[in-house]
Amino acid sequence: MIAIAAPVSAASTQGPVLRDIHLPPEPSWWPPAPGWWVLAACILVGVSLAAWGWRRYRRTRRRRQRVLQELEQVAAQYRHDGDPAALAGGIQQLLRRVARQHVPLAGRQRGEAWRQTLARIPLDAAALDVLVALDRHIYQPGAFDHTAALDAARQWLRQALRDRNWKRRRRAVADPALESNHA
């Protein structure tokens, strides 16, 4: 028997019939890639730190204004009644209250210990002497330069109410009685 050859089709000479290329679906926007999560966390931390810093700045600024306003009230009271002992006492009270935030025993210091606490704020020697002499003017009434005292107190308080202006001491012994206990 003789085999009859079938005609060769055009499709078989070109190879198999292929379908069109299909691309994968577009990636979903959710969930974001890990890099976006890290970026979002960094932004959140940055915004939180900025808000914390702003709150702290505002709080210290209000505190500074409140203390300086209180000094002005003491000065106004002096202009009203002319009592130098009350002026010296009011200024001294403000100075000690601010100093106590950095030197806990500042409220009990006298003499050289108080001078050293005041000197931790950069201030010229004349203003420092005026502030140290206030302690004497509370208990020994007499005339003193109230303008110089108020100016020195303003200058010291403006500097002292900024924490970065406090000079650090390696070992601060605020009370000589504590030093004798450690010996």
Briefly say what this structure is.
This is DUF4381 domain-containing protein. The chain crosses the membrane at residues 35-54. With 183 residues, the protein is mainly α.
Structure description:
With 183 residues, this protein is an all-alpha fold. The chain has a domain at 48-167: Up-down Bundle (Four Helix Bundle (Hemerythrin (Met), subunit A)). Helices cover 63% and strands 0% of the residues. The chain has 7 helices and no strands. Helix 2 runs antiparallel to helix 6 (146-160), helix 4 runs antiparallel to helix 5 and helix 5 packs across helix 6 (146-160). It is rod-shaped and about 145 Å long. This is DUF4381 domain-containing protein. It comes from Rhodanobacter caeni. Keywords: Membrane, Transmembrane, Transmembrane helix. The chain crosses the membrane at residues 35-54. Pfam families: DUF4381.
Question: What attributes characterize this protein structure?
Answer:
183 residues, disordered C terminus, 0% strand, mainly alpha, Four Helix Bundle (Hemerythrin (Met), subunit A), DUF4381 domain-containing protein, rod-shaped, membrane
Topology summary:
Layout: H1 10-14, H2 34-81, H3 84-99, H4 111-119, H5 125-139, H6 146-160, H7 176-182
Helix pairs in contact: 2-3, 2-6, 3-5, 3-6, 4-5, 5-6
> What would the principal axes of the Cα set say about the shape?
rod-shaped
The proportion of strand residues reads under 5%
Task: Count every beta strand, where a strand is a DSSP E run of 2 or more residues.
Answer: 0
Give me the strand/helix succession.
HHHHHHH
How many H/I helices?
A: 7
The CATH class of the domain at 48-167 turns out to be: Mainly Alpha
Reported by name, the CATH topology of the domain at 48-167 is Four Helix Bundle (Hemerythrin (Met), subunit A)
Instruction: Determine the structural class based on helices, strands and strand pairing.
Output: mainly alpha
Unreliable stretches, pLDDT < 50, 5 or more residues?
Answer: 170-183
Q: What's the gyration radius in Å?
A: 39 Å
Q: Helical content, roughly? A: 55-70%
> What's the mean pLDDT score?
85
CATH architecture of the domain at 48-167: Up-down Bundle
Sheet having the most strands:
none
Distance between the termini: 128 Å
Protein name: DUF4381 domain-containing protein
Keywords: Membrane, Transmembrane, Transmembrane helix
InterPro entries: DUF4381
Transmembrane segments: 35-54
